[in-house]
Amino acid sequence: KEILEKYHDLFTLKWEGVVGNIRVPSQAEWEQLLTNCSAFLFYGMERFMSHILLNRLVAMNIPKCHLIILLDLMRSKKSHQRITKSDIHKSCLRIAIERPTETAVLLSLTGVRSIIANQWYTTLQENAERLEIFSKSLLNIGRTTGQTVHILQK
Hints:
There is one protein chain. The protein has one domain (about 10-120). Strand 1, helix 3 (about 55-60) and strand 2 (about 65-75) form a beta-alpha-beta unit. The mean pLDDT is about 85. By secondary structure, the chain is an alpha/beta fold. The chain has 8 helices and 3 strands. The longest helix is centred in the last third of the chain and has 18 residues, at about 125-140. It is about 45% helix and about 10% strand. The chain is globular. Helix 7 packs antiparallel against helix 8.
């Protein structure tokens, strides 16, 4: 919410989505947001792919989406317990598909042009810092996504 307020006057007037932890978006909301966006930001706990239905995602066509930023793979005790319970009901293949590289491949096959994603688990604070750097670099300074990723790598 702080990021939205801080960059409100730049591009965030056109932003749509679900903010906060009051409720989990429905599958229909995920699909609507993904198919109608030019850029998509996921900032959430655990794996992005654990939040949406795989069979619905692979059937989607998302050519309008130029960029997806996945600031996922954050872990807390509660989220780890939730994902562990969820994973019990999944095959090893399904869990493997939820890994970062496989997620990027699937999103790419649906038509997404660029994907920026975490490769390993991180903390809430580290992802908050990444989001601040992304926002400042892309929205305030006007750097390209490549320049922004390069800054994050340092």
